[in-house]
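Extended Data, panel c. Modelled sequence:
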Amino acid sequence: MLRKTISIDEHLFLELQNEGILDHFKNFSDLVSSSLQKTIDSMKKENYRKEIEKMANDPLVISDIEEIQEDFKYADAELFKMDQ
């Protein structure tokens, strides 16, 4: 475990106490670690979403998708005929 000293706004800390949030954790360090992990997870999801969005607008990716669709259109058509 890495030890770091943090500063927290007094009103924020009082709100944590008043809302009973601190009662859900073994100690303040657990609360901080849990909150940081949630922030990391959220940022990873947001970064992933942005990358996917960027790819969706990338002409090279669009071209690759079109090529793949063209390459498989006959196989897809055969599967469609078999289902009917």
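The chain has three helices and no strands. This feature is highlighted in the accompanying rendering.
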